[in-house]
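Example 9 (inverse folding). The structure is encoded as follows.
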């Protein structure tokens, strides 16, 4: 290689190094939060579906089992039967308000949180645990596939300039 070619090559490497550093910072502060916010409807739907099936994401936290427990009390089972709602599993569904108010919030310091803005949220989390808002392994892997694809597209654009 000639001297001019080496200088251009080194300049290209410095440029790539700069782009990688900038991208690393933007990845956690800009891109990932944006992708997750863009997937909020998908994530919330997965959480609702898990709850409806009486499941939670306990397996992802290392806990044993994935069934929402404790089971409903006999009084609640009778009320569910009268309303025509499932009573063979804990769905956390009564009027639909708790489900409708499930939201994702983001804090730059601590990351993402999923909760319901329904007044019953704290009581239900206390009784059934925070894992009710955690994705199970299958749903988590599905979300990761979507996020990976979006990150690949962003990476091509930001680093390679495509």
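The amino acid assigned to each position is listed next.
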């Amino acid at each position: 290689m000639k001297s001019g070619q080496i200088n251009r090559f080194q300049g290209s490497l410095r440029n790539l190094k700069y782009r990688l550093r900038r991208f690393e910072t933007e990845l956690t502060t800009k891109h990932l939060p944006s992708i997750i916010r863009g997937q909020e409807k998908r994530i919330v739907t997965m959480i609702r579906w898990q709850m409806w099936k009486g499941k939670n994401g306990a397996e992802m936290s290392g806990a044993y089992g994935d069934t929402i427990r404790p089971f409903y009390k006999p009084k609640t089972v009778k009320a569910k039967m009268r309303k025509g709602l499932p009573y063979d599993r804990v769905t956390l569904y009564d009027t639909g308000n708790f489900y409708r108010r499930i939201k994702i919030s983001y804090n730059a310091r601590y990351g993402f949180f999923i909760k319901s803005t329904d007044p019953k949220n704290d009581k239900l989390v206390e009784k059934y645990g925070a894992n009710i808002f955690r994705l199970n392994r299958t749903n988590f892997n599905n979300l990761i596939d979507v996020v990976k694809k979006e990150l690949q597209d962003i990476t091509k654009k930001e680093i390679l300039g495509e």
